[in-house]
Design a protein that fits this description.
The complex is a heterodimer of chains A (113) and B (111). In chain A, strand 6 and strand 7 form a beta hairpin. In chain A, the strands form 2 sheets. In chain A, strands 2, 4, 5, 9, 10 and 11 form a 6-stranded mixed β-sheet that branches. Chain A has a 5-stranded antiparallel β-sheet with strand order 1-3-8-7-6, with no helix packed on it. By secondary structure, chain A is an all-beta fold. Helix content of chain A is 0%, strand content 53%. Chain B is mostly beta strands. Chain B contains no helices and 11 strands. In chain B, the strands form 2 sheets. In chain B, strands 2, 4, 5, 6, 9, 10 and 11 form a 7-stranded mixed β-sheet that branches. A 4-stranded antiparallel β-sheet of chain B has the order 1-3-8-7, with no helix packed on it. The radius of gyration of chain B is 13 Å and the shape is globular. Classes of the chains: A mainly beta (113), B mainly beta (111).
Chain lengths: 113, 111
C-alpha cells in the first residue's frame, strides 16, 4: 500500500504560467510534509515544507497548500521558469523527523520557454 | 563545507560480492539518513543515526544490509552477498539546523 501518491508522472507548462503539482496521502498520522526537487545525477534538494497545523506555507515563488480533510497537498510554482524543470517529490512524515519520511514516486515538470 | 559527499558515485559488482558505500555528512549535522531509490520511484528510507547511535534499523531491507557511524561523523552502508535486486541508487542525507541535505548518491549495479 503506497502511503504517498503523486498521480501525475509528468507535467508540462509554459514559462511564466503556474505549475501545480499534486500529492495525496493515506496515513492520517502524517503531520509534516515536504517537497523536494531533483535534477538528473544529483540528490533531492529540499524546497519547502508544511506542518499539519497550517494549511499554507509560502517561500518566494513556491507555495504549498495542505488540505488535511482530503489528505491532499499541492505545490504551486508561480511564475514557472525553465530552470524549474526537474522531478518533484512529495514526502510525508511524523513528528517532524522528516528524514524518515515516506516519498511519492515523483512528478517530472517540464517548463517550456 | 561542500555538502554531503558520497563515495563511490558508481559501483558495479558481481552477484554474491559484498559492497560498502561511504557518506560524509555536513560536519555540524548530527542526524544522518540512508535511503534506496529504484528507477521511477521516490527514495525509500532505510535507517538513520543521531550522532553515533543508530536509532532505527527496522526498515533495512534484509539482514544483508547494515550501517555504521562509528564516531558520529561519516557513515558506511554495507550490503553483503549482493543480489540483482539490490541494483539501485543509494542516497545519504544529513540534517541539522537549517534542514536536510542529500548527497548525490551511489549507483549500484549488480551483474
Amino acid at each position: 500500500d503506497q502511503q504517498v501518491k503523486q498521480n501525475s508522472p509528468s507535467l508540462s507548462v509554459q514559462e511564466g504560467r503556474i505549475s501545480i503539482l499534486n500529492c495525496d496521502y493515506t496515513n492520517s498520522m502524517f503531520d509534516y510534509f515536504l517537497w523536494y526537487k531533483k535534477y538528473p545525477a544529483e540528490g533531492p534538494t529540499f524546497l519547502i515544507s508544511i506542518s499539519s497545523i497550517k494549511d499554507k506555507n509560502e517561500d518566494g515563488r513556491f507555495t504549498v497548500f495542505l488540505n488535511k480533510s482530503a489528505k491532499h497537498l499541492s505545490l504551486h510554482i508561480v511564475p514557472s521558469q525553465p530552470g524549474d524543470s526537474a522531478v518533484y517529490f512529495c514526502a510525508a512524515g511524523i513528528n517532524t523527523n522528516a528524514g524518515k519520511s515516506t516519498f511519492g514516486d515523483g512528478t517530472t515538470l517540464t517548463v517550456k520557454p | 563545507d561542500t555538502g554531503v559527499s558520497q563515495d563511490p558515485r558508481h559501483k558495479i559488482t558481481k552477484r554474491g560480492q559484498n559492497v560498502t558505500f561511504r557518506c560524509d555528512p555536513i560536519s555540524e549535522h548530527n542526524r544522518l539518513y540512508w535511503y534506496r531509490q529504484t528507477l521511477g520511484q521516490g527514495p525509500e528510507f532505510l535507517t538513520y543515526f543521531q550522532n553515533e547511535a543508530q536509532l532505527e534499523k527496522s526498515r533495512l531491507l534484509s539482514d544483508r544490509f547494515s550501517a555504521e557511524r562509528p564516531k558520529g561523523s561519516f557513515s558506511t552502508l554495507e550490503i553483503q552477498r549482493t543480489e540483482q535486486g539490490d541494483s539501485a541508487m543509494y542516497l545519504c542525507a544529513s540534517s541539522g539546523v537549517g534542514g536536510y541535505t542529500f548527497g548525490s548518491g551511489t549507483r549500484l549495479t549488480v551483474v
